[in-house]
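Sanity check

After download, print the first record. It should look like this:
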Amino acid sequence: MTTRERLNIPRQPMREQPPEERIKNFNEVPLGYDEKTAMLEAERCLQCKVPMCIKGCPVEVDIPAFIKLIREGKFIEAARKIKETNSLPAVCGRVCPQEDQCEKTCVLAKRGRSVAIGNLERFVADYEREHNAIEIPDLPPPTGMKVAVVGSGPAGITAAGELAKRGHKVTIFEALHEPGGVLIYGIPEFRLPKSILKVEIDYVRALGVEIITDAPIGKLYTIDELFEMGYDAVFLGVGAGTPNFLGISGENLNGVLTANEFLTRVNLMRAYRFPEYDTPIYVGNKVAVIGGGNVAMDAARTALRLGAEEVSIVYRRSRAEMPAREEEIRHGEEEGVKFKFLVNPIRFIGDENGWLKGMECIRMELGEPDESGRRRPIPIEGSEFVMDVDMAVIAIGTSAQPLIRMTTPDLEFNERGYIVVDPETGATSKEGVYAGGDIVTGAATVILAMGAGRRAAAAIHEYLMRKKAQQGK
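Expected structure tokens:
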């Protein structure tokens, strides 16, 4: 096929559940490519001599190579090509913002029609799993070195897998009762099915990684105690799971909660499988979700599926400034989520029994850009009004997890409570301790956390090999 012919192939859309059906279930919304569609989409790749898409990928997947294999019908080989640098392709194919990373740097993006890299990644990962073709790569002889990984989110899981593939004995300590971190407690079933995440985590386990749950480091053991237990290095991927609040009156009313609490209860207590799991979870009739990111969209779409009559996103900027993925916003609009832009809550109003009954808001206008690059929202004097709501979900971001800071005084943190590291290696101020993901950057994307875990694993490996040589092991 000539380049001209490839340029004439339109980007292949992915099949989806119709909105009127999906708001009644927690099944996945996009339904994936079939073989024919995947191969046609793969034909669109120009196989650039200098593939900018690889530079746009935080874990440096050889994108042209795996797409070429799809084009040739070698789907299993394509999945294994991805897994050379990415242990979680089925996850990344679903939740990574490819439009701002690999697809953004695709040369076809200049025409507004980048190759659907994320859709193709999802296709081959699903194909490999559905055909029971997952294989564990040959592992090197054990090095005799032990690494403790704290947290089983995307940074921790990635670091653990990379270290195991280098021959080290790795143990993950997870605070909650199921591994996965934000992937399992923060992302709804309709975006990332738990069964698929489990397969990805089982792959890392099969590499030899031990996962210990119900083990909050900073409570069960300190970092120093991990070294005393015989670990030669520690990677901290504890995330930034402390929810932020608005700091306005009425936040302690019944019916006001954070997206962190709401989504965790739905996910870990399986409220999405009601009535099979009769999870005690309150959902109002009129729900307001405060925020404009992916978490806000997740909370809003979850509330709809749990039976809310009306769900509104309340966001202090305009649609153009929303940080949520365009696909998530589109899905929310199709499902009936209402959007109230340039609106900011200033007070929650309760009834005589302490339950939320209303939310006083003020209208906003946009001024000059702030440090985020987005135009700063400014209150419009005298524009206050009251929304009739009986449930409010606060989704305005998270802050650093404090346990490690409270129990590791010789570890350097910045003024916001995040761990200070060498950005190239993830090395902290404490010898043998590395960190990556949201506990370093603040809340960011899954793939950026994975990239940090991968870089740290390479640096930890070098550190361990030097240490082993010095010990004469």
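If your output differs, re-run the checksum step. Summary of this record's structure: Residues 446-471 form the longest helix (26 residues).
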